[in-house]
């Protein structure tokens, strides 16, 4: 598990406005902009926002396919598999942390769940 990366994402999520956060898709809304641009009105889920939290990584958002991509020496990964490889998680851990809980989940709730997981190993229910 990449604890420092997970904690960095949790810290970053605390800065995301709830109106720009939607756990129902990796990216949605106004797609002709970059998430990191202040005037952009697109929404993203926790893992979608990871592409902004880690700008120098090979973690990228593809607005044409609505997927998160990660490339390393071993290959190219999409969506939850990308989260597994980037954060060093199992499939169950990845889906528990990044799969939508419901459409009203806030970025602060996800940040709290990530921190709890890093500290205790407990996954959200």
Task: Characterise this structure.
The protein has 125 residues and is of the alpha+beta class. It has helices spanning 3-13, 46-53, 79-87, 91-98, 107-120, and strands at residues 27-28, 43-44, 59-62, 67-72, 75-78. Strand 3 (59-62) and strand 4 (67-72) form a beta hairpin. Helix 1 (3-13) crosses helix 2, helix 1 runs antiparallel to helix 5 (107-120) and helix 3 packs across helix 4. The longest helix is centred in the last third of the chain and has 14 residues, at 107-120.
Low-confidence stretches: none
Q: Count the helices. How many?
A: 5
Query: Major sheet: size, sense and barrel closure?
Result: 3 strands, antiparallel
Helix content: 40-55%
Radius of gyration: 13 Å
Count up the domains: 1
Compute the average pLDDT: 84
Structural class: alpha+beta
* Strand content bin: 5-15%
Give the number of DSSP strands.
Answer: 5
**Helix and strand run:** HEEHEEEHHH
Q: How far do the termini sit from each other? A: 20 Å
* Order of the strands making up the biggest sheet: 3-4-5
3D shape: globular
Feature tags:
single chain; alpha+beta; 125 residues; 5 helices; three-stranded antiparallel beta sheet; 5 strands; two-stranded antiparallel ribbon; globular
């Amino acid at each position: 598990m990449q604890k420092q990366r997970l904690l960095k994402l949790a810290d970053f999520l605390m800065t995301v406005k709830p109106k720009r956060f939607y756990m129902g898709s990796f990216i949605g809304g106004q797609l002709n902009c970059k998430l990191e641009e202040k005037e952009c009105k697109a929404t993203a889920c926790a893992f979608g926002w990871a592409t902004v939290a880690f700008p120098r990584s090979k973690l990228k958002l593809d607005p044409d396919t609505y997927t998160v991509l990660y490339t390393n020496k071993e290959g190219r990964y999409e969506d939850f598999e990308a989260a597994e490889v980037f954060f060093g998680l199992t499939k169950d851990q990845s889906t528990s942390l990044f799969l939508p809980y419901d459409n009203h989940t806030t970025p602060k709730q996800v940040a709290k769940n990530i921190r709890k997981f890093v500290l205790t190993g407990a996954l959200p229910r």
